[in-house]
Each structure stands twice: as structure tokens, then as C-alpha cells.
Amino acid sequence: MRTAMCATRGRVQALKGIQIRKKLTILRACVNTVGLYGLEATGMKEGSEKLMNQLEVMQRRWIRMVLSAPQGVANETLYMETGILSIEMQLAIKILRYGVKLEREAKIKEQCWVKHTYLISVWTWLGANHELDEAEAIQLVQNRIGSPKEAKKVIKEEMRKFAWNHYAGRIEKEVQKTTRLFVKLNDGKDKIERSPYIYMNSHRGFEIAQIFRLRAGFNETASSRNIRHLDHDRKCRICGWIEEDEIHLMDDCYLYESYRVEFFMKLDNIGVIEGIIEERLKVHEIALYSNRFVELMNKKYKEKFEDVDMEIKRFIYSIMRKREKCCSCSDR
Fold first, then answer.
1. pLDDT tens string for the chain (332 positions)?
2. Which of 185, 206, 240 marks a domain boundary?
């Protein structure tokens, strides 16, 4: 199975012109669905741990390939950006759904809510209290879920919220300078969901990869390179500012001023500039899809979001190509 999945990943990587959204769909079909088939019946046994680790490694490799993500990007960032749950969490969802199904059909009543210590934490994710014993926790969950149809919806929604808090907590616990902007951009978010820039206009692979790297803190700005010990100086090589980070690149550097003016004119033509001014959003919050910007678009301008997304990607393409050209000239 592992060989077949790696071969599939290689073939998809070799094909040109496939949209990123479709590549992630192939990931779900070839890795998640195939790898997890039937595992809910066995539960979280010791023997399945090694298999899950192997599946998660393949899953992350696939995501890195699709997004052109460097190896240094945290695993949590990959999951939080794509909205894809890890294999372990997807298996927990399948076990919970399987338990609901068996309970509703009144089969194997004593064993249906698999008696593994791992599942005690699953009940906790769904709102149970640590002080409750297993039977009381199960009863609480059952009362809250209702019908089997509601169960699927509730379980998935709660797991996405838990996953977001879990990954965000791990990033904040081991916070590095590269992830500070990422944490700031996602302020106020409470559950894992796919980032719009990955799934809108997903044929723009270069721009999506650049936005991902800028958000994740793994890019070619002087500050990011300095943090990763690839460069001794943080100064902007274009304007000489004391530190060239992602915010300086988007908001301040004079080299890209004409691109910013053109970008805001296009946003005005689309008809979203009033909301942006009201929210006092900065250029980096728009171009790097901060949670405030995404909420504004979903609330007021949902039908125009795809057009705005295209203009953002054109803006990102312009400034990154311009920077690349200027830096290569200065190296000569």
C-alpha cells in the first residue's frame, strides 16, 4: 500500500496543469480513504499506531508537494492551512461514528463504544468532563448528539474545533519568531477549515505557494532567512530599512508602491474597498488572508470573493517577481 501511494504521489507531481484543489482531492481519495478503510472496527490498538504514523508521513509529504512547502514548515501549519485533519483525528471520527451506529442498532451494546483509554480523551473533546467515568461520558455524548444523522455532523464539527485548538496550542507552546505572524493572522479563528486562497483560483500554483510561505514564515525575506541562520543581516536590500519582514514587504517598501496603488484601485473597481477601509485592514492583512479579512469577505462580499482572490494573487505575483529580479541584480 505504501509503495502504491508513493507511486501515485510521484505521478501526480509529474503531471503539469492540475489545479491544487484537485491534487488535494486525490490526496483524500488515495491516502485518507484507502488508508483508513475498515480501521474503525479495530480501534486505536497498539498495532495500528505504526500504520497511522506511516500514513501521516505520506499525508504530510503529499501536502508539502502540493503547496511546495519547505521541510522546515511545522506539520501543524500544513493541517491548519489546508483544513485537512490528521490521520489520527480522522480515525477518531470514524470510531465515534461507528460507535453511534452500533449503539443505535443495539448491537454489541457493551463493546460498541470501544473500551480504549484513547477514547476517554475523545469524549473530553466532545464536551465531557474529566471527572466523569466512561459510562457517564458516553451517556452525555449520546444525549447531546441525538439522531445518527446529527451525530456525524456534530462529531466532525467538534473534532475540527478540537484540532484547531490542539494545533494552535502546540504552535504557541513552541512559538518561534517565524510563526508569530501566522498566529496573528489567525487571531479569532476557532476551528480547522480550508484556507480560501488554496481552493479559489487554484490553478495559480506559484502565487498560492508564495502566500503559504509568507504566512508560514518560511520565505526569502531577509528577516526569515536571518531567523533560519541563512543570512547575517535583516536589512531590506531595496530600501535599507532596518528589518525586511513580511509586513514591511507588503505595507512599506517603496519599490512596490505602484503595485499597491494599482491593487487598491482594482479592489475599488470590484466594490469592496469601503468595507476594507471601515475595518482598517492593512495590505498584509488582505494579501495574506488574515481572519479579519476572510470574515469580512464571507459576511459582506461573498459573491465577490473569487474576483478579489484573483487580484490578490496578481498583486503577490507582481511584487515577488519584482523582488526576485531586484535581488538577483544586486547580487551581481
1. 556 556 666 666 666 667 888 888 877 777 777 777 777 666 655 566 777 788 888 888 888 888 888 888 888 888 888 888 888 778 777 777 776 666 555 444 444 444 344 444 455 544 443 344 545 545 555 555 555 566 666 667 777 777 777 777 777 665 566 678 888 888 888 788 888 999 888 888 889 999 999 998 888 888 888 888 888 888 888 888 888 889 999 999 998 999 999 999 999 999 999 999 999 999 999 999 999 999 999 999 999 999 999 999 999 999 999 988 887 766 55
2. 185
Residue 59 is part of which domain span?
Answer: 2-185
C-alpha cell at 216: 508560514
CA distances from 131 to 99, 122, 144 (A): 22, 14, 18
Q: Does one domain contain both 176 and 67?
A: yes
Does a structural domain hold residue 68?
yes
Q: For residue 165, with 0-12 CB atoms within 10 Å meaning exposed, 13-18 middle and 19 or more buried, which class applies?
A: middle
The answer as to whether 214 is a domain residue is no
Number of structural domains, the chain?
Answer: 2
pTM of the model: 0.80
Same domain, 164 and 43: yes
Closest Cα partner for 37 from 93, 94, 89? 94
Do 158 and 230 reside in the same domain of the chain? no
Helix residue ranges, H only, the chain: 2-14, 20-27, 34-36, 46-67, 75-82, 87-104, 117-125, 134-145, 148-173, 180-185, 196-199, 205-216, 222-227, 246-247, 257-270, 273-279, 283-287, 291-300, 305-331
DSSP 255-297: GGHHHHHHHHHHHHHHT-HHHHHHHT--HHHHHTT-HHHHHHH
Half-sphere exposure of 162 (CA within 13 A, CB side): 21
Same domain, 141 and 265: no
**Please, is 290 exposed, middle or buried when counting C-beta atoms within 10 Å of its C-beta (0-12, 13-18, 19+)?**
buried
